[in-house]
């Protein structure tokens, strides 16, 4: 299962990137996150591990696997029979800031997870994109 959402944000790319990269503050702008704590604190970097607590979900450890500062990061998590990957990308084209969020589920239990949780996953990714847009546009004015 893979779900992607793209949105245009009426804010400077650095404002959007700051919101995306500061994962410990996501609970301030999206209802899909109760708390994120980066182990050891500080900004995320490749290899950083964060505990993510979301409504109606068990706490899950996410590890940053890729980071292009100012542009994107990917983190991954594992569960029994499942591998999760979430990518967050901020780009600028002709002065317009774009955000793309991608969430993927793989592994032997991915088809079952898609049936049981696909709707909730799509809602969460869509909500995060809309919430990020609203937050960045409000804070950049």
Automatic annotation (TrEMBL):
Highest taxon listed in the record's lineage: Bacteria
Gene3D superfamilies: 3.30.530.20
Annotated InterPro entries: Polyketide_cyclase/dehydratase, START-like_dom_sf
SUPFAM superfamilies in UniProt: Bet v1-like
Protein name per UniProt: Polyketide cyclase/dehydrase/lipid transport protein
């Amino acid at each position: 299962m893979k779900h992607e959402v793209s949105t245009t944000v009426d804010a400077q790319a650095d404002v959007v990137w700051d919101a995306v990269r500061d994962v410990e503050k996501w609970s301030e702008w999206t209802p899909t996150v109760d708390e994120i704590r980066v182990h050891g604190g500080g900004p995320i970097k490749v290899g950083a591990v964060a505990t993510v607590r979301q409504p109606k979900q068990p706490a899950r450890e996410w590890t940053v696997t890729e980071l292009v500062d100012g542009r994107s990061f990917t983190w991954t998590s594992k569960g029994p029979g499942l591998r999760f990957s979430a990518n967050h990308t901020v780009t600028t084209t002709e002065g317009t800031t774009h955000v793309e969020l991608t969430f993927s589920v793989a592994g032997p239990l991915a088809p079952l997870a898609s049936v049981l949780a696909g709707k909730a996953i799509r809602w969460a990714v869509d909500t995060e994109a809309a919430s990020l847009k609203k937050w960045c546009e409000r804070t950049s004015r």
